[in-house]
Amino acid sequence: MSEKEGSRDIVGGHAGDRDEEPRPFIDEVFAVLADWRRREVSRFFIETDAETASVDDLALLVAGCRPGDAEGPSPAHGDLVAALEERHLPRLDAVGVIDYDPRSGTVRYRGQPTFEKWLEHVTAVDDGRI
User: Fold this and answer.
1) Residue-wise over 42-81: b if at least 16 C-beta within 10 A, else e?
2) Could you report the per-residue pLDDT of 11-42, keeping only the tens digit for each?
3) Can you name the CATH fold of 23-126?
4) Where are the domains of the chain?
5) Is 101 helix (H, G, I), strand (E, B) or coil?
């Protein structure tokens, strides 16, 4: 079994349980967690128990969470919306954390146990607890 095959274990069951959703490749999880904007969007849904949000609201959230050591000037609101729509939300959607509907500009949180576990660890590192 290759590394990739091993990382596609079935959540909460056995490899033979094909009706359950597979976990994302760990490389995909780490790639998504590598960007602070995607971490902030994910934390928003986890910490607030919100089920849905608009892209516009998430752009406001991201603007308010910009790290002090982020490079360059703060982007305009429209640029944040575009970055979320074009890059960040599709990446979160691809690993099964959210459902992003670009037509309505709506984001629905789905959650993903593997992702959430690693996000918790990254948050602890970001906060200096580890």
Assistant:
1) bbbbeeeeeeebebeebbebbbeeeeeeeeeeebeeeebb
2) 444 444 445 556 657 889 999 999 999 999 99
3) Arc Repressor Mutant, subunit A (1.10.10)
4) 23-126
5) strand
